[in-house]
């Protein structure tokens, strides 16, 4: 039960930071999202985000910094395994499952429900 609460709090803190950035700065949501992924990559490469993931679990890996963390860790692992080529293939291999799931579930929701564009 405590793990669920900690995950909720960590994920909530990440979302609160994004909301504050949207409310208090002129940054667009797209720039904030890209910044979060980039921060996740840097913190993952420096092994700093490992501490957040250790305690926050899904609360740290599901939001966008977790995606960047996954890219960094997958790339580092692949570079150690196959060399320089791993710099190009590691991120793709590490994130393929999540991206594929997002596409499949998004398509399924579009079939089940009647999506409309904003007017």
From TrEMBL:
InterPro entries: Spore_V_AE (IPR014204), SpoVA (IPR005562). Pfam families: SpoVAC_SpoVAEB. Keywords: Membrane, Transmembrane, Transmembrane helix. It comes from the Bacteria. The chain crosses the membrane at residues 6-22, 29-49, 94-113. This is SpoVA protein.
């Amino acid at each position: 039960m405590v793990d669920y609460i900690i995950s909720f709090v960590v994920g909530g803190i990440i979302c609160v930071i994004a909301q504050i950035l949207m409310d208090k700065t002129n940054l667009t949501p797209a720039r904030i999202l890209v910044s979060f992924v980039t921060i996740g990559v840097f913190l993952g490469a420096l092994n700093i985000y490992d501490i957040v993931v250790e305690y926050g679990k899904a609360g740290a890996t599901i939001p966008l910094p977790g995606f960047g963390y996954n890219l960094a860790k997958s790339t580092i692992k692949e570079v150690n395994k196959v060399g320089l080529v791993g710099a190009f293939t590691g991120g793709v291999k590490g994130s393929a499952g999540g991206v594929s799931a997002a596409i499949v579930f998004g398509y399924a929701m579009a079939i089940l429900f009647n999506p409309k564009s904003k007017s």
